[in-house]
Amino acid sequence: MSPVYWYWPAAIESTHQYPINLAGAIAVKRFHIHIAVDDLEKNIAFYSGLFQTEPSVRETDYAKWMLDDPRINFAISHRGRKPGLDHLGLQVDSAEELESVQQGLAAAALPIAAQKQAACCYATSDKYWTVDPQGIAWEAFHSLNRIPMFGEDDVIQLESVSSCCQPSDNT
């Protein structure tokens, strides 16, 4: 399981409402980016130089950097998908935070697909997927434990949030 990061309330304006743990510290989500690549080793070298650190997870088809500044879970994989942005997401530290994100998605009437105990990216996670108006997949997830294989790598198919901005067939 990933480490828990906390920011102290004194650093935050008192007008903001943030979840606070029992010790009085504020939990902050981690932004997630996953990019499909055509040459894993070349991309590991590039991103290790960019981030000035080696990946925290490195496998034959996958690499992940858990960065603190900026607070990002950045992953790349070479698994036969078209190179480019695979998906975006928010990583949370608890089942309660994950349910809160899901409730926000539901309240906004966004399309949602749930995955419980999903085996993906060398971890078991509970997830909720949605898709934005551009068709970019977003996942909200809580990683439960590390596993020795990439996993199912299922592609979640959902309708876009809105069809108002999609190109028409009449062009």
Query: End-to-end distance, in Å?
Result: 49 Å
What is the count of DSSP helices, taking H or I runs of 4+ residues?
Answer: 2
Radius of gyration from CA coordinates: 17 Å
Number of strands: 10
Keyword list:
171 residues, alpha+beta, 8-stranded mixed sheet, two-stranded antiparallel ribbon, disordered N terminus, disordered C terminus
How would you characterize the overall build of this protein?
The chain is α+β, with helices and mostly antiparallel strands and 171 residues long. Helices cover 15% and strands 36% of the residues. It contains 2 helices and 10 strands. The strands form 2 sheets. An 8-stranded mixed beta sheet has the order 4-5-6-3-7-10-9-8. A two-stranded antiparallel ribbon has the order 1-2. The longest helix has 13 residues, at 95-107. The radius of gyration is 17 Å and the shape is globular.
Topology of this structure?
Layout: E1 6-7, E2 26-27, E3 30-36, H1 40-51, E4 57-58, E5 62-68, E6 71-77, E7 84-91, H2 95-107, E8 113-120, E9 123-131, E10 137-146
Parallel strand pairs: 3-6, 7-10
Antiparallel strand pairs: 1-2, 3-7, 4-5, 5-6, 8-9, 9-10
Short description:
The protein has helices at residues 40-51, 95-107, and strands at residues 6-7, 26-27, 30-36, 57-58, 62-68, 71-77, 84-91, 113-120, 123-131, 137-146.
